[in-house]
Amino acid sequence: MNITIGELIGNFILVAGSFLLLIVLIKKFAWGNITSIFEERAKKISDDIDSAESARQKAEELAQKREHELAGSRAEAVTIVETAKETAEKNKAGILANAAEEAGRLKAKANQEIAQNKAEAMSSIKGEVADLTVTLASKILSQELDKEVQSELIDRYIKQLGDA
Hints:
- With about 160 residues, this protein is mainly α.
- The protein has 2 helices and no strands.
- It is rod-shaped, with a radius of gyration of 63 Å.
- The termini are far apart.
């Protein structure tokens, strides 16, 4: 097989022409679609990158906000606990003061009742002693007694007083 230069040039022109024709046809019918597909793809990738960056920033902002709120909640919890402790201490002091005051009041009332009962008992005893004295004096005056009878009479009344 011998290929001549003419055939070679002819084949070259034919292939080059076909290639140029193919490029022209692609340019005319498909190039716009192909470039628009590539542009849409590039735009979609760019938008996805932008939205991912935006979502990352929002996530960081939300994380910072959550951390800030968590720190605020912790501080608020500490404040609430401290306030509760202070209130409990105040209530404790008030309750203890009320209890001490009540105990003092009850003690004073008991002392007053004891003093009153003692006074009533003394008054009652004085009345009884006075009655016994009057009775004894009237008996002694109504009888003339010798020393022995008088001693016996006193012993009997003292015994009656002890039995009463």
